[in-house]
Amino acid sequence: MELEQLRHMAKVAEHGNFTRAAADLGLTQPAVSRSIARLEEELGQPLFERHSREVVLTDAGRTALAMARRILGMVDDLKAQITDDGATGRVRVGAIPTIAPYFLPGLIRQFRDSHPRAHVGVVEDTTDKLLQKLADGEIDLAILARPLNVKYLEVEDLFEEELLLVIAADNELCREPVIGLDRIESMPFVLLGEAHCLSDNILHFCRHNAFNPVALERTSQLATVQELVALGHGVSLIPAMAGRMDTSPRRVYRHLAEPTPTRRIVAAWNPYRFRSRLVEAFRKLVREFSLVRQSSNVSTRTS
Fold first, then answer.
1. Cβ proximity of 277 and 190 under 8 Å
2. b/e string for 94-117 if b means 16 or more Cβ within 10 A?
3. What residues contact residue 34 under an 8 Å CB cut-off, 6+ apart?
4. How many angstroms separate the CA atoms of 131 and 134, rounded?
């Protein structure tokens, strides 16, 4: 049994597809298939059920994957500890889709300026999947939003972010600088799918204020939510960091009247995994970067 076989199995399990796993690994699909077949032959059990468009772990495969991730994590920790010079190596950071494109680019640029020989890998995924990757040692740090149901992970609050009301540019509410909840009670809402914690934040806020959004429309991308709002499908609540970056003249952003909806942005990591000096430097920068974001009085576009 070779470490590369375990890495190949983990990638196939991650993608659920040999072709996509091979592309991620920089190998050919037949090479990955042969590697998995040799591993299955050595273990005497099939690790995957092969279907026409996907592969699914068998019971033996799930057991093997859990062990493989622990083994690979230990090997990565060994390498990191031996070569821990604080300047070279890699940092693996995860973030949810409603944070990653708005928060990470500036953070990574700043880190690269101070650590030009380091590599930062980014994983964008839903909260549950990122928490699992933290537990398995596949990423070093995750930028998430509360609430979180976590065990055996450290969580540090970074900053609180306002959620802004986004409406189509031709909506009569555009004339109002601050909008009360009673003004949008009868309007349909466009939200992300249930896997996204932003929707939980929004629905919790509404229910806490005795307000039930009507005619919910669900989508999988924040950009699609914004486009549907611009097309008049309804209204939504959008993180301020996304609203600040939106340059479309077809929609505008407004503050809701008190109580203002917000979400709490946090950093999470696995305290039982080795953290290199490079990872610690990145974690420190996340704190500093967040403080600047929290304290800076960046005006949100409202017209």
1. no
2. bbbbbbbebbbeebbeebeeebee
3. none
4. 5
As given in the structure block, the two tokens for residue 78 are 């060994």
Q: Which of 42, 58, 82 is the endpoint of a domain?
A: 82
Which structure tokens are listed for 145?
């939003």
* Residue 56, helix vs strand vs coil: strand
- Same structural domain, 70 and 163: no
149-196 pLDDT, tens digit per residue, is 888 899 999 999 999 999 999 999 998 989 998 898 889 999 998 878
What pTM did the predictor assign? 0.75
For residue 263, with 0-12 CB atoms within 10 Å meaning exposed, 13-18 middle and 19 or more buried, which class applies?
Answer: buried
Whole-number Cα distances in Å, 241 to 132, 160, 216, 220, 290:
26, 11, 23, 18, 12
Which residues constitute the domain of residue 244?
Answer: 158-264
- Closest CA relative to residue 153, chosen from 166, 163, 140, 164: 140
With CA atoms as reference, report the closest residue to 9 among 47, 41, 54: 47
* Structural domain total, the chain: 2
- What angle in degrees, to the nearest 10, is found between the helix axes of 100-114 and 277-295? 120
Is 104 within the bounds of a domain?
no
